[in-house]
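Troubleshooting: if your tokenizer reports a length mismatch, compare your output against this known-good record of 118 residues.
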Amino acid sequence: MHRWALAALIVAGLPNASFAQDAEAGKTVFHKCQVCHQIGKDAVGPNLVGVVGRKAGTEGTYNYSNAVKNSGITWDDANLDSWLQGPSKKIPGTKMLFPGLKDATDRANVIAYLKTLK
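Known-good structure output:
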């Protein structure tokens, strides 16, 4: 019985494992990000086209904080999920002033949307 309870806790703690990702819903949630992250050349913040799989702090000519440039992070699902929960918690010293997305489904959907930006 204890094994089942432990297994349930482990599965519940896996980031986004139980959430179906919906890129269209993510596009809607992404509106919260568009203050800084316009898609394309008009972005104030880093361009997010191709962000999934990219090393943090390496896109184009954006002037990243040293914290982001030296983080060693590659933007995969798990790193994006924890970043979207609260950027300054993931990388203390980031310039990104965003309180985060508290809802795990919203985060999963935004990640699915980001994967469509190529």
